[in-house]
Design a protein that fits this description.
By secondary structure, the protein is α+β, with helices and mostly antiparallel strands. It has helices at about 95-125, 130-140, 155-165, 180-200, 205-220, 225-235, 240-285, 300-305, 305-315, 320-325, 335-350, 370-380, 395-405, 420-425, 430-445, 520-535, 535-540, 605-615, 620-630, 670-675; strands at about 10-15, 35, 455-460, 465-470, 470-480, 485-490, 495, 505-510, 515, 545, 555, 570, 580, 595, 600-605, 635-650, 650-655, 660, 685. The strands form five sheets. An eight-stranded mixed beta barrel has the order 3-4-5-15-13-12-8-16. Strands 6-7-19 form a three-stranded antiparallel sheet, with no helix packed on it. The two termini are about 60 Å apart.
């Protein structure tokens, strides 16, 4: 609802005014019917510019001098005095009537400016499409005042939003949906419109016009004409000053015209910026397009889907510190900012550095020649080699190759074979595309708002990271679920059944010396086959079979060094029955690509991790842990403070020395995204006979 403090209503009056003008030489008093008038002042406004309150000083006709003020000291007698001719009193009646009439017309024009503000705001809101409902609600919550303007000019917050929109490509986001060119045009028009209004206000008429304007602004709608005349006379004005009144009225009309044009420009720019403001919030907090399972089928539906949350954000944001507030919508993990730096780096390479192609051959220590020089040049282009381009494959060259291999998830051997050559010949532009997708995955990550202590597992990186706010405390290698196509006869389905699912939960329990309760699918598809080959397989591997009343069998593996879960497991209850645990197959941690499990995550150095977590939680000391392990009996320790766990998928990382890490798309989720196949079915399974 639009609200304005308007106290200048024009209406005729037939009542006898309090102030009376008595013409000289008459014995009767008369009053002149007039208009109830008011004036809001030059500095009126719409939206935020609301300095419109009228002045209400009471005006009365001048009074004759008191008797005791007559000079009676003259010694001259009455008969000796010269006869005097009475002067005709000065008149300002015509000036007063014209002033009242012009005042009424200007009030009407002023009201039109106010109504024009409301209609223009409604018109501009109607121009937007998807966000119309949200923007209308935002202005209502803001009491119909402009958000990025004070009613006189665009505020500094408008420039903040413009700069943030211009910087979107540094986040891997296009400005196409923001129509940056149109936004810049509207802001330029608004800034241009402020100049005429400022100029007019700075060049108000001086001299008698200024004095008359003060009288003009002082009266209100209830002031009678007689009082207006008295005030004019008292201020030194007569009917001879009609030309001065014309100057005052022309000036005030020019102010109103300039204000109308300024309002129109400010409103158009304000609505445009507010529209981009909400789109920015959507892109950084609510829009999901890359998550393999949670991507929005219709991203534009975010306007309606998150209407309440977006409006709540708008109501709570501190616009006085807008830049910091908007940065608060960026992912908090410091790797996000480092990834932005990486994007700028590869975009610069793509634009400015012709990429050297590495010959398709094997390079190793001791070789020399132009091909080796090309290899050194290529490594130097990406910041891996800083030595001289000697053309000799020496130790410095081999170390540069090893560093490159480490950050590109290749076998680290210092030998440039087919896999390393393929990686080096990936175009810079393709690397930039990968980084842009990584930034989008960060914006969609459940870690984006996490603070305090939490665990992040990045499946393509095959690592679990342990964060305290923006500090990485430690990392542990993990083995994740395999990407093999599997069958589940019991459920009659097949698919990528072993993939580690993407979800978030809280670690609540650490179990020492765990039993392994074998899932039915694993029993039927793996253990039963082992039994066919080795009848005493269960006895050799410490399995126990329990037959239930319905005749079905439950198989579990007892605690001990050979247990598939090892000596400890870390539980965060979830619908997928996925958790972290130890493993007797330690050799798998030496592999570069570690996707071998049935879905759970096997963690390297699990007892060291358990000790770290339990001591940090004050749940168990290191000595107590070792004593419990030696008992070979299962024991669960409930954590005093559950730990957030986020399992996600991002094929770009950042090494400790700042290099971008390009990781293997182990589950093909990047490929699915690029082919427009997301969101995928939750488990990507199908019927066995389908």
């Amino acid at each position: 609802m639009f609200t304005y403090q308007v106290t200048c209503l024009m209406k005729p009056t037939a009542q006898k005014p309090k102030g009376v003008y008595k013409p000289p030489g008459t014995g009767t008093q008369k009053y002149i019917p007039g208009w109830v008038i008011c004036w809001m002042g030059v500095s009126f406004g719409c939206g935020n510019d609301v300095s419109m309150a009228p002045q209400s000083d009471s005006l009365t006709a001048p009074q004759p001098p008191r008797v005791d003020q007559v000079d009676r000291t003259s010694p001259q007698s009455e008969s000796a005095k010269s006869p005097s001719v009475p002067e005709k009193p000065a008149s300002a009646l015509e000036l007063a009537n014209k002033l009242v009439a012009e005042h009424a017309l200007l009030r009407e024009q002023q009201s039109n400016v106010i109504e024009s503000f409301k209609s223009k705001l409604t018109e501009e809101i109607g121009r937007v499409s998807a966000s119309r409902k949200l923007i209308k609600a935002a202005y209502e919550a803001h009491e119909s005042a402009l958000v990025f303007s004070d009613g006189q000019t665009m505020s500094a917050t408008a420039d903040v939003m413009l700069r943030l929109v211009r910087e979107l490509p540094s986040h891997g986001l296009s400005t196409d949906r923001y129509d940056l060119e149109e936004l810049e045009r509207l802001l330029a028009v608004a800034k241009e419109a402020t100049e005429p209004y400022k100029t007019i206000n700075a060049t108000s008429p001086g001299g008698k016009s200024q004095t008359l304007m003060a009288v003009f602004d002082k009266i209100d709608a209830e002031t009678p004409v007689s009082a207006v005349e008295a005030t004019l006379l008292d201020s030194g004005f007569t009917d001879n000053d009609l030309e001065t009144l014309v100057k005052v009225v022309d000036y005030k009309k020019s102010v109103l015209d300039a204000k109308k044009k300024l309002n129109d420009a400010l409103i158009a720019a304000d609505v445009a910026i507010l529209n981009r403001f909400f789109r920015y919030l959507i892109d950084f907090r609510y829009r999901k397009v890359a998550h393999p399972f949670r991507a929005m089928r219709k991203p534009e539906s975010a306007w309606e889907a998150f209407h309440k949350k977006l409006l709540a954000d708008f109501k709570t944001i501190q616009f006085s510190d807008l830049e910091q507030e908007m940065r608060g919508f960026w992912p908090k993990n410091p790797l996000y900012e480092k990834t932005r730096v990486g994007l700028a780096y590869y975009e610069k390479l793509a634009l400015e550095v012709p990429q050297v192609t590495v010959a398709t051959r094997t390079f190793k220590m001791g070789q020399s020649g132009d091909s080796v020089k090309q290899l050194q040049t290529r490594l130097a282009q990406e910041g891996y080699y800083s030595g001289s381009l000697t053309g000799h494959f020496d130790e410095d060259t081999a170390q540069a190759v090893r560093t490159y291999q480490e950050t590109h998830q290749l076998d680290v051997d210092g030998i440039v074979a087919a896999g390393t050559v393929r990686s080096m010949n990936v175009p810079w532009s393709r690397r930039a595309e990968q980084v842009r997708l990584s930034l989008q995955r960060w914006r969609e990550s459940d870690t984006r708002d996490l603070t305090g202590f939490y665990i992040r597992v990045n499946i393509p990186q095959f690592e679990a990271e342990f964060w305290e706010n923006d500090t990485l405390l430690r990392k542990h290698r993990v083995v994740v679920g395999s990407n093999a196509w599997e069958k589940d006869p019991d459920r009659g389905i097949e698919g990528y059944l072993n993939r580690t699912m993407l979800f978030s939960d809280e670690m609540e329990l650490i179990v020492l010396n765990p039993l392994w309760h074998v899932p039915k699918r694993i029993k039927e598809t793996e253990l039963d086959k082992e039994l066919e080959k080795t009848p005493d397989y269960y006895e050799k591997h410490n399995f126990t079979v329990k037959t239930l009343e319905d005749g079905t069998q439950q198989v579990y593996q007892n605690s001990g060094p050979g247990n598939a879960l090892g000596q400890v497991k870390f539980l965060f209850p979830n619908e997928f029955a996925i958790y972290m645990h130890d493993t007797p197959k330690k050799q798998l941690f030496k592999k570069t690509l570690r996707a071998f499990s049935h879905g759970c995550m096997r963690v390297e150095n699990p007892l060291d991790l358990a000790e770290f977590l339990l001591e940090r939680d004050a749940s168990m000391t290191a000595d107590e842990l070792q004593k419990t392990i030696k008992t070979n009996r299962e024991r669960g320790i409930k954590l005093n403070t559950p730990i957030p766990v986020v399992i996600e998928y991002n094929t770009v990382g950042v090494s400790s020395d700042g290099h971008m890490m390009f990781l293997f798309d182990v589950y093909g989720y990047d490929k699915n995204f690029e082919e427009g196949k997301v969101p995928l079915p939750k488990h990507k399974v199908q019927a066995l006979d389908g």
